[in-house]
Amino acid sequence: EMPLIRPPQLADAQLMHELVCRCAPLDQNSGYLYLLLADHFSRTCAVAEQSGQLAGFVSAYRHPERAATLFIWQVAVDAGWRRRGLGLRMLESLLGRADLADIAFLETTISPSNAASRQLFERLACNFSAALEVCEHFGPEHFGSKSHEAEQLYRIGPFKP
Questions:
Q1: How much is the pTM?
Q2: How many Å separate Cα 1 from the centre of its chain?
């Protein structure tokens, strides 16, 4: 049985943080950030819940300068749920929400070594018969003294109504 996919609630914030911390290579942010995501961005984020546990989490937001673009920040899937299509189901669930019906493009950044994320977004584009463009975006120099791989911008769309 697949987990229930729903918007996050405040009570999920700490579980979201803990899940991300278990999902290398995702960047670990502060617990406070996940409170803000659950509180301010629940309409553009999703959690997958199974028996009171979080199986997955997607954080996203509308691009501040392009309201029809949904930027996906993190996709976390608990180890026991990987390779079962949960990441794809969470993304498709977000795109199926009534208040996101005007989303024409989806963007995310992915480091070249993250094959699982690349495959996830390639599959999403294929499922929606949408174009996928990849271009350089954040170079290692943008991350300052912290050693961080480059991140390429993936842009999918436009989605057909």
A1: 0.94
A2: 22
Strands across the sheet with 66-77, in order? 4-6, 46-50, 53-63, 66-77, 105-110, 151-156, 132-138
Question: CA 57, CA 42: separation in Å to the nearest integer?
Answer: 11
The DSSP secondary-structure symbol of 131 reads -
Helices (H), the chain: 13-21, 31-40, 86-95, 115-127
pLDDT band at residue 16 under the 50/70/90 scheme: very high
- DSSP 8-state code for residue 122: H
Task: Count the residues in the chain.
Answer: 161
Query: Residue 68 burial by CB count (10 A; 0-12/13-18/19+): exposed, middle or buried?
Result: middle
The three-class DSSP label of residue 86 is helix
78 in Cβ contact with 24 (< 8 Å): no
Contact status, residue 98 vs residue 67, Cβ threshold 8 Å: no
